[in-house]
């Protein structure tokens, strides 16, 4: 098999991008890279250290003190921030409410894109995010753009938060947060969320996880060279 095949998955928040990406990686034996987790970890660092996102000098300095690493257990992607496991904390509402602003920052995006591109130079990877098929890997042979009904997305995210013990956030707050993030992601100046011209649309509003995986595998199989 080709040794640096990149499968790019973009789309809106809580559309199941990571679920599909992890399933594809497991099925194909690829490495899964959660680019969104990188922006969330940076956001967490900024919140903890009161970094003013409008102060470019402080942002540049902060990024020099951030070390992100991924490790995998059973194809679940876990991220560490300066050696600390933060996979659960970065999914909580304080980070969700601020990640769009942080990820829209030009300096932050440039640094994260450089790190993401390095990951895809010599390995078979599945990477999900907002601009993977348009900015990070515009030449990726396989690109998906995922979408789903906003109400379904909010319900999925709400259930995810509940499963992690967060019972303080309401479904309405989650819905509003997703709407805000959609607007921020699609209107930001730096690498906005758009569908690449050659991306395959995957609307999973009415699909099971198994059905969306089958759909994706059918599209990926022609690009696998053994």
From TrEMBL:
SUPFAM superfamilies linked to this entry: P-loop containing nucleoside triphosphate hydrolases (SSF52540)
Catalysis: reaction(s): CMP + ATP = CDP + ADP; dCMP + ATP = dCDP + ADP
Annotated binding of ATP, by residue: 11-19
Biological-process GO terms, alphabetical: nucleobase-containing small molecule interconversion; pyrimidine nucleotide metabolic process
GO cellular component: cytosol
Gene Ontology MF term list: ATP binding; dCMP kinase activity
One Pfam match: Cytidylate_kin
UniProt keyword Kinase, yes or no: yes
InterPro entries: Cytidylate_kin, Cytidylate_kinase_dom, P-loop_NTPase
NCBIfam families documented for this protein: cmk (TIGR00017)
Family: Belongs to the cytidylate kinase family. Type 1 subfamily.
Designated name of the protein: Cytidylate kinase
Originating species: Pedobacter alluvionis
